[in-house]
Every structure is written in structure tokens, then in C-alpha cells.
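User: Run a structure prediction on this.
Assistant: Running it now.
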Amino acid sequence: MATWNRSAATDFLLLGLSEDPNVQIVLFVLFFIIYLITIIGNAILITVCTCDARLHTPMYFFLVNLSFVDICYSSVTVPNMLVQLLLVGRKIDFSACATQMYTYILMACTECVLLAVMAYDRYVAITFPLRYTVIMSRSVCITLGVCCWMCGSLMGLLDTFFTIRLPLCGASVINHYFCEATAFLKIVCVDTFIAEMVIFSVGIVVLLIPSLIILFTYIQIVSTIMGIRSAEGRCKAFSTCASHLIVVTMFYTTAIFLYMKPVSRDSGNQEKVFSLFYTVTPPMLNPLIYSLRNKDVKVALQKLLHRHIFH
């Protein structure tokens, strides 16, 4: 049985996104701005939804959870990447690597399941409007939220355990900007079939199954909306789902492309670029998409700003 090769690898060298010092400076400025927008945007959205009593509904309960996940999700990789862009040696020790891998998978899987739950919430709201508050009661929402976090925790433990324990081959150089599971498997010196199957199985649980749930719910949602006689009513119903659909499409497309295929040892640079589309971009865009397309959030934000500026 393979065991942790701690004596051979106490530190890992992360190759990062670029070795060019000039490019590194540009990337540092770019990702620092993106990280600031991510933290500030999601923090504002959490504050607005928490402070305004009219937004204490299931939809905004899940949106607050999504914003919190996005803050944690982005903070797992971006701050460390920013530090590494300023340093010549991008080393990370074994414990930090294992912790980063687990936390990243935890947040990614939680977000995947949470997006499916949000789709179900929109399905209930549009298909069963009169029974919405009964079906999506406070206890049901809390239970669904806890299930999202529990699923993320379990998937993170499985992926990390079956990946980080494998012995390494020679130099511990990871061709990525953080300790990502599939990138880690490329420096393992034993058969990685079991670990790859675990990653693939986790992908089925948190990517394919939620994708099918989202697809089913939106088929039902569109069918229900097309039955609304009023054009204004149809537009309003579509508007409540458009933001979520944009986020889902952006997040799931790149994640499925990267994790629902065999691990390739020759596509590290390509995978690093694609991973930016679901590790850095969605957490920044989520609060912008939801706030700019949501009238209730914009009104609540204006009231909150007015209250603190003029009183």
C-alpha cells in the first residue's frame, strides 16, 4: 500500500502562471484587483441581504451562502498566488499543500451543489408560487444549506486522501499556481488509476448530477413561463432565472471540461489557464451579476448607503 512520502517531499515548488518577471508584475496587479473586487463585492452582497428584512427569503439565503463560499473559494488560492508572483521561489510545504487542496475541493464542491439547490429554489418559486413559502420553509433551507457543506466536506476528504498520500517521483515540482489534485497526480510515481477514479466519481456527484438537476429544473421553468399569458410576467420570471443561469453555465462548463476526463501529463499550461475561469472569475462576477440584474438588491443597497451616508 502506498504511503505518504514525507521524507522525499517536505516542500513543493509551484511553477505558477509565468516565469517572466515583467509578466509576473502584470499578473500580480491584475489578480490583486480581481481579488479586491471579489472580496468587496461579495461582502457588500452579504451585508445588504443580511441587513434588509425584505431580502430574508430562501433565494437570498442561498445567495448569501454563495457569496460566503466565493469569498472562501477565492481566498484559498489567490492570496497565495499573489505572494508567489512576487517571490523567486514559490515553495509550499506538505501540510499547507494538503490543506489548500482539501479547502479548495471543499469550496468548489459546495458551490457546485449550492448552484443546483438555487436552481431548485427558482423552480419551486416559479412552478409552485402559492406553495413556495411552505415548500421552501426556513428549516428546509437550512437543511439544504447544511447538506451542501457536508457534501463539499466529504468530497474534499475523499479527493485529498486518495491524492496526497501517494509517493512522488524525484523533484516535487507542481506545474500549477496552487496544489490542485490533478496537477499533483502528474508528479506521482505509482499508478494513479484509483485516485483518478475517485476524482472522476466526485465529478459525477458534484458536477454531472447537479447539472442534470439544473437542466431538468430549467426545462420545467421554461415550460411554466411559456404558459404565462402576460408578456410582462414572462419577462419578470425569466429575469429572476437569468442571473443564475449565467453563473451556472460559466462555472460548470470549465469544471466539467477539466475534471470529467483522464489526467493528462502534457496539458499543464492549458489546464492552468482554464482553471482561472472557475477559480478566479466566477467569485468576482457572481455579486456583479446578481446585484446588477436584481432590482431588489439594488434598492436595498441604495437604502443602506443612504442610511450610513446621511445619518
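The first helix runs from residue 21 to 51.
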